[in-house]
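help with this:

***
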Amino acid sequence: MPLEAGLLQILACPACHAPLEDKSADETPELLCTGEDCSLAYPVRDGIPVLLVDEARRPA
């Protein structure tokens, strides 16, 4: 389930404050940080973004 565009406009990475991009797939919904040095991927559970750095993963 994709997130609303209005919500994506106000969300930012808690680590570096860069905008987030919706990279949701059916199996693994997540928001990807667009910051060059950060690039953390935050999970989306039940349609709710989990913006905790401890819950984020580093893309390979």
Q: What stands out?
A: DSSP finds one helix and four strands in the chain. Residues 16 and 38 are 7 Å apart (CA to CA). The longest strand covers residues 41-45.
